[in-house]
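Data card: per-record layout.
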Amino acid sequence: MTTTFETQRAALADVVAIPVTPFAEDGSVDPGTYRALLRRLLDGGITTLTPNGNTGEFYALTPDERRLVTELTVEEAGDRSAILVGVGHDVPTAVASARHARELGAQMVMVHQPVHPYVSQSGWVDYHRAIAEAVPELGVVPYIRNAQLTGARLAELADACPNVIGVKYAVPDAAKFAAFARDAGLERFVWVAGLAEPYAPSYFSAGATGFTSGLVNVAPSVSLNMIEALRSGDYPTAMKVWEQIRRFEELRAANGSANNVTVVKEALASLGLCRREVRPPSRPLPESERAEVAAIAAGWAI
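The structure for this 302-residue chain is written out next.
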């Protein structure tokens, strides 16, 4: 029987939340706080979670910590959310992580962009094919940040691996996204705007039906307001939300996104929800800049 992945596809056409990974005072992952943050997302109406995403500091976690985060997410979410587990690094590591996700009952994996300095387009296909073929029961979502990759290569991958069902597209170019999606097959995949709320309106106009979010950790209702407006084609309302979050996202994107996770954790810390600490190569926000983030978070009246 052929798997259609209809449930997984529907889950991607939504706010795809990337939970932060909170740390305890001793620097270890804080399971209790992580569970509390997940409950807050779930209670706020979020139904798709991506443990081990970039906002979760994927690259700063140890293999054991990544497994722990996956386990905590699946346990806490139960049947309240679809789980899209971030996997990556070398192929054996990514495959082991994907199989672990499958054993726990997760429905999908997101394959992080390869960090190897020399990535050929055919090698990109080979990398993702090895992972997708190891877990044919799971939906597979490549995370694309490579502006040189062509849509034809994604189509080639999906020809070999029908479980490649969606794409987290994170190249900051709406025109390139529109062309890439049509070259790969606009209706063939679920297109997720991988640069979150700031790019969601432009990417939705070109065919995206979901977007990722780190901001959602702070204000789930704000992210849900945006996707509701985009689904209904109400771009003026979506852009009012865009204006509401603009400064917060500018702070995250400054200096090559140096404070992408830092600003989210600072906002959560200002609300008393988790500690502000991040791991190198990120660093906590300077004390002089914390008040602005706290004021933005407080202004969302969550």
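Known properties of this structure: The chain has a mean pLDDT of 97. The chain has twelve helices and eight strands.

See the next section for split statistics.
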